[in-house]
Amino acid sequence: MPNNSKELVDKLWAFCDVLRDDGVSYGDYVEQLTYLLFLKMEQEQSEYLDKDSEIPEEYSWSKLVQKEGAELETHYRRTLQALSDEGGMVGLIFRKSQNRIQDPAKLNRLINLIDEETWIGLDVDVKGEIYEGLLEKNAEDTKSGAGQYFTPRPVIKALVDVMEPEPGDEICDPASGTGGFFLAAYDYIADEYDLDKDQKEALQHDTFRGWEIVDNTARLCLMNLHLHGIEGGPNSRAEGVEGDAPITVDDSLISDPGERFDMVLTNPPFGKKSSYTVMADDGSTKKEKQTYERDDFWVTTSNKQLNFVQHITTLMKVNGSAAVVVPDNVLFEGGDGETVRRKLLEDFDLHTILRLPTGIFYASGVKANVIFLEKKPASEEAHTDEVWYYDLRTNKHFTLKRNPITYEDFEDFIECYKPGNREEREETERFKKYDYEELIERDNVSLDVSWIEDDSLQNVEDLPEPEVLATDITENLEAALDQFQQVQSELESSD
User: Fold this and answer.
1) What is the SS3 assignment for 63?
2) How far is CA 245 from CA 219, 226, 263, 276, 443, in A?
3) More reliable by pLDDT, 365 or 63
4) Is 129 exposed, middle or buried (0-12, 13-18, 19+ CB in 10 A)?
5) DSSP code string of 183-218
6) Structural domain span for residue 45
7) Count of domains in the chain?
8) What stretches of 232-332 show up as alpha helix (H) in DSSP?
9) Are 53 and 65 in contact (CB under 8 A)?
10) pLDDT tens figures, 229-245
11) Is the dihedral of CA 357, 359, 365, 371 positive or negative?
12) 449: number of Cβ within 10 Å
């Protein structure tokens, strides 16, 4: 049995590499690990904590470990199929599940590796650390495309620290990914407050509510939350509420859920346009723009990012707050973009914009910002008085491997932000305010503001390292290619 968490992590990593030689990706490995860990922990809770298991006995961990060879592969496949038909958390985690490990001997080895450890005996942080590490490794595997669902944890921690969630807050992420914002908010509340028993239970069962459209990502999110002890969303313990899963597997943009939240923390998926393929009677296919006809939206558009911004304003309670990662186009695009920005400035307090550096996201070619806003009561003058910008982009160079961004890189931003004391803000070289009257008169009400001189354009001798330059060039080319593809998609859908 492993005698410490590092040894267990090393064993899991090593076996992941063994499976990769058989064509099992990091994503497939984490997916299978999710199923097996859930079964093992359910067995342990039943055995050691006298908790009723949600897993039918026929498909329990104790039955699985008795099998070998072809019998094991057949039983495992049947187990996944049967549990996908269950309700609640079980059904969501095993939704559309399939066995990706075709070699019964290696499947048996992974089961034995998990069976060696008593998982409920591990500290919650240790279990979470193991799983988070696997998720990050999966995000680094660019071929899987998982990076678009994984926001770098230093970014998330910095945003949560300035947002300061409190006990009793109901917190939402309409594009949950692997659950990073929820876990950071959970840790913040647990660390900053001396919670009593009821508050601890409320934090685990009544605080978080999310949506995720991708099945596999939703299951990873649910397991990530489960390993951290987060089991339900707001009102999950209320009488008459069915199921206790904090995540809904669905497109959150389809409709107004009717629920309102104290805080929204989210990084919606990158990519501007939404479309789907339809088949005509003659057998030909064409792409149609996906728009959302919602009475609560200011504009009807196929721009996914603008739709998410509108959706988030609906989700906010009066006096609620939000921190939302958005690409640059949300700040400057004309037409529908101008309408959305004007409404944000007029109807909300859009008090802060953080210009994020490039080279920090697993999805390449991304230039992003974080917008911070609050929803004021109708009785108060709602519009934004001033927007404070923090520029963490100009003359900052990060790469995912050789110079990754860290939490320390956000410390000056956090200091300038003045959490809880925004009225005490002062301008600095990187922190500058613009009045509402100045912004509302800008062309297209553009909120894409820059004032720091780019040093790399002034002196050839001061150019960044070749790797940084290559990364910048690659990201710019990928961003340009994405824009060309969006134009092509629009032209095809209009044919």
Assistant:
1) helix
2) 11, 10, 19, 29, 45
3) 63
4) middle
5) HHHHHHHHHHS---HHHHHHHHHSSEEEEESSHHHH
6) 5-122
7) 2
8) 304-315, 329-332
9) no
10) 787 766 554 444 444 68
11) negative
12) 17
